[in-house]
Amino acid sequence: MGQSVKVALAQLDLAVGDVAGNTAKLIDYASRARDRLRADLVVFPELSICGYPPEDLLLHTGLRHKVENALAEIRAAANGIAVVVGFPEYVDDKIYNACVVLRDGAVLAHYRKLLLPNYSVFDEKRYFTPGKQAAVFKINGIRIGLNICEDVWGAAPMQASRSAGAECVVVINGSPFELHSQSKRETEMRRRIADNQIPVVYVNMVGGQDELVFDGGSFVMDSEGEVGFRAPSFDEGLHAVTLHATSRGVEPERGECANEPETEAKVYKGLVTGTRDYIQKNGFPGVILGLSGGIDSALVATIACDAIGADKVRAVMMPFRYTSTMSQEDAAKQAASLGIRYDVIPIEPIYAATIRQLDAVLGEREADSTEENIQARCRGMLLMAISNKTGRMLLTTGNKSEMAVGYATLYGDMAGGFAPIKDCTKTMVYRLARYRNELGAVIPERVITREPSAELRPDQKDSDSLPDYDVLDPILEAFVVDDLSVAEIMARGFDRDTVTRILEMVKRNEYKRRQAPPGIRISGRAFGRDWRYPITSGYKFPLKD
Predict the structure, then answer these.
(1) Active-site residue 46, yes or no?
(2) Which of 19, 161, 426, 466 gets the highest tally of CB atoms within 10 A of its CB?
(3) Are 86 and 97 in contact, with CB atoms under 8 Å apart?
(4) Which residue among 6, 25, 46, 372 is the active-site one?
(5) What DSSP string describes 520-542?
(6) Cα(391)–Cα(389) distance, rounded to whole angstroms?
(7) At 285, is the secondary structure helix, strand, or coil?
(8) Which of 25, 50, 124, 149 is catalytic?
(9) Residues 395, 415: Cα–Cα separation, whole Å
(10) Contact 153/190 with Cβ under 8 angstroms?
(11) Cis bond upstream, residue 53 (ω within 30)
């Protein structure tokens, strides 16, 4: 009978900077893997000791000392099981994204990440020095190589592991979620396996970290590129897979393969996960939001309840003379269906007092967007006051379509601490609302079917200022995510005037986006870490060929 190694994949939600808490969690899960699963090896995600991404915390001397102490603690606790743990390694004036394999007080292997990503949301070259060589260790006669995340997006690191004698490669990851991330990972892994003909154990983290959310989806692939195990996305867990040494090489034993969720299901779960972790990891006792009777606030209220529970969510309706009876009825109905506290604070007195105070300075002038913005800022002031008094964080409810073209008010509806649907286009918001209602109807149907309106002037509709969202959103996708030119966007079936008008709006409103709260990234490019557009720019979009 051939030899075998039982590997525990620890798909965990870890907190950036909480070295003590993370270390305790790693030791606890290593004990569970040893005692409950009888595992020979437990594998933790990338930079698991300090959390990922640690950003400029890496430059703080105090973090270095905490990490060194944590490594010593884990080394002492790793008895009867081998542990793969990621950490920032400090050597003189250099920092490496590294991992070690520890067992019974010994270091079985030490590896430094070879390829450092420096695109999209990643800027690892700002902090880390690349490693130079492969690392292979042996357990129960099976030789296992180590790679870290970006390493498997290039050919050389796994080839180096194979050349060093690896019969299987363990890959530890801090790979954030976006719409097609799981299929991209598995496709890329098949390319590496096709070149090396060895199986792969891929372990990813879960949980939210500021704008990023990590979806897990840890998996094991055999030497033919077939998935034999896949962990459920967004769920913490400890999963065991056995590797068998055979005459044909190392073969993973098949296990459970969680299905890849449909788009709406995985995006919604990502939003819930990211919102929950941002609130809880930052220590807020709950949240507050303005519930307007519209689709965006309806979805955010639902996400918040699913994330932290209805008892920690508070909503406020702030009607004005333009707020329809329909909006007031629907907001009250949804608050009741969710079971959240619901208050009504009319803004007419605050608005009127503000206008009176401004009359002496501005005099009699024709109404314009100024008055509309005052309405939004009256609401923002009330919500922030409740937030300050109660300690509850204010959630903003703007979506990506609005943020792109500036259909939002600074210090008004943009005021707040976190923006759950900031990276969701308006069309995605509708899809998510319908998906959530399939699980249990909590958003009134009329909220989903009515024509969207900010209700800041009589009979106002979004379509007064913007193209239909089924036109606007694909143009924004082409420009923001795909970086296409005007001509290339037109080739997708859109007229030049519409395209240039929208792109000018995007350019003109960058100053607003710079002042917006963070929100969860779900697309290939969100407004935040991976969008760095100049505020001051003389660039002109071509008006003709």
Answers:
(1) yes
(2) 161
(3) yes
(4) 46
(5) ---SSS-SSTT----SS------
(6) 6
(7) coil
(8) 149
(9) 8
(10) no
(11) yes
Confirm if 75 and 102 have CB atoms less than 8 A apart: yes
Beta bridge partner(s), residue 169: 145, 200
Looking at every residue in the chain, the average pLDDT score rounds to 94
The residue type found at 78 is: A
Strands in 186-305 per DSSP E? 200-204, 206-209, 212-215, 219-221, 227-230, 237-246, 249-252, 287-290
The yes-or-no answer on residue 424 being catalytic is: no
- From the candidates 6, 25, 113, 422, give the one annotated as an active-site residue: 113
Q: Which ranges of 391-442 does DSSP label H, i.e. alpha helix?
A: 400-405, 426-439
Residue-wise pLDDT for 317-367, tens only, equals 999 999 999 999 999 999 999 999 999 999 999 999 999 999 989 887 888
With H, G, I as helix, E, B as strand and everything else as coil, classify residue 294: coil
Instruction: Answer yes or no: are the C-beta atoms of 124 and 58 closer than 8 Å.
Output: no
**Strand partners for 289:** 315
List all residues 6 or more positions away from 365 whose beta carbon is below 8 Å from its beta carbon: none
Crossing angle, helix 348-362 and helix 369-390, to 10 degrees? 130
| DSSP-derived secondary structure letter, 367 | -
Q: Is 50 considered catalytic here?
A: no
Global pTM value:
0.94
Give residue 109's identity as a one-letter amino acid code. A
